[in-house]
Please model this.
Amino acid sequence: MLPLVYHPIYSELELPDGHRYPISKYRRLYQYLIDEMKLDQDNEILFCQPEAIGVDELKALHHPDYIEALFGNTLPAAKMRRIGFPWSQQLVKRTLTSTAGTKMAVDLASQYGIGIHLSGGYHHAHHDFGSGFCLVNDLAFAARHALTLDNIDKVMVIDCDVHQGDGTATLLRDDDNIITFSVHCDKNFPARKPASDIDLALPKHTTTTEYLETFESILNLALAQHQPDFIIYDAGVDIHQHDELGYFDVCLDGIFRRDHLVLSRCQKADIPIAAVVGGGYRQDHQQLVELHAQLVHAARKVYHSG
Ligand SMILES: [Zn+2]
Model:
């Protein structure tokens, strides 16, 4: 069984014309996967819908004043600009639902070995501020949640979005049982990159082969050294060669192979994995769908082939 977590609210947000955030990609990805399922009689996909978490649940992770101001719409204008979305009731509801979705993927992974969230990856949210389209750090929230489950003593967050996981790094700096591992472009947002436990910074124009070879060698070392019992994986597709906010030269098949690599390592070692789709930016949102679908294709191959 391959559980996929989705909620229609992910794409239900009014944004100004020309806004960079590809808000419709979630609905498009969901529809693409539904259409694929109809063609495939043997599918074993289970769709699950999360319910928004309560605001108070976030106050252990983020500064309570930040959470109060964010959800009460009293955050200073400069702080909202840093986030990059206009404030709305729908925005905060979407945030609470998406955070719940990554948490739900963790619970599903503990049951089925894998859970995929068709949203998530808001890794630029810090303790007391948000940035880069990220209000609440669902990865850090889910990693701490995973540690509350039976037999989970060490969690690794593997963040393959092209942008460094700065918020996750700072939020989890003192969590000795959570290892943060970010693979990203060295000359890209965020300008300041606070240290993760493991940072693999690759240069602009890194090719598919360079990316996969380097990532695989560091991944092998990281897994051998830290022996995690749970993995949270950000499968951002902004590593793609045509991404509008990324600078790598990784092709479509490279994304599939990266996702397949991570998932097959987990499956072979019997490590549950909760994956999120992460970043991916195109003016034409439909062009992102096939890229994000690689995560699901890789999961079907790894988990359904026995
Ligand atoms: Zn990104």
